[in-house]
Amino acid sequence: MSRAAEVSEKLALLRAALAEAGAQAIRLRGTDWFAWATAGGDSSVLLAADCGVAEVLVTRDEAVILTDAIEAERLRVEQVPDVFSFHIAPWAETELRETYVLGVANGGVVLSDRPRNGNGHAEQPLPASLRLRRMVLLPPEQDRYRALGRDAARAMSEALRAARPEWTELELAAAGSQALWRRGIQPALVLAAGARRLSLFRHPVPTTEPLGRRAMLVFCARRHGLVANLSRAIAFGALTDDERNAQADLLQVEATGLDAVRPGQSLAAVYHALEAAYRHVNRPDAIREHHQGGITGYQAREIVASPSTATGIETGMAFAFNPSFAGMKVEDTFLLGANGLENLTADPDWPATTIQGRARPVWLEVT
Q: Do the bridges between strand 110-112 and strand 25-30 make them parallel or antiparallel, or are there none, so unpaired?
């Protein structure tokens, strides 16, 4: 499928949502929806921003990129397929964009991923059915995800194999970020923890503290709008028996959750499978100490699994679960295909063990 064909299929979904809602236009502001609608285009400049420098506006007859004169030519040449036309406003006259949208809407309803009120019109949220369709990835999206996953896994391995106990957490995070950027991947999130902080915090934002004998690195790695999520750990010196036993228990918890990822099941069913697995390894409280992950794609977590998440699992969805104990976590990004789960972030050169038929990463032990 060409990029233009992918965009055409997505425009058909957007126009079906318009017809269902009786709306005049759909306005997509977020960098996630922009990437989805443009088949991998990137509207981000400030990486920490939720919305980028351009929007997508879709009506029954048009598909338009709304942006300003600073960004238009770059986006046209490098990011957006020819399927779209452009409405370009001077950077100092952003109100012209709103005037254009008002004219297109002609008093009708505008749907938006991030609805806003004011400027003469009210916007309504996107229908849940469209949000669900975004999570079922088309074949070209799956191909982009596979390439991203392979590159992100290599970047992770490169950074950790270079690490030394005297490095600070910030130095490890910097090595990880550099390895990602070198592969054209945005470091949407990079966490790093050394031996002391690893057991204290589930989200260890890196500090100047030295790593010491143990370290973990976590990526949410973004390219073409898709996010690959993975975590790995390194031990400078052999693991203790207690650490090996904990690792085995954690991988068994994860395997139970992954086995529950089947078409027709709900995310809640996966959560309950993980909950039972934590109890089985005598760590019943661990599930309340950190979320377990869920569906991924154009957000690091599109939907997080909980006891009441009724969202149904479908072939073509991607998942990133991250079961954890204090000081230990396992995480990869998987695609659910016709033959089950495919690990997108596997590095065949990283040490692994086989759990219930799957190769799963273990600590890299440097002795």
A: parallel
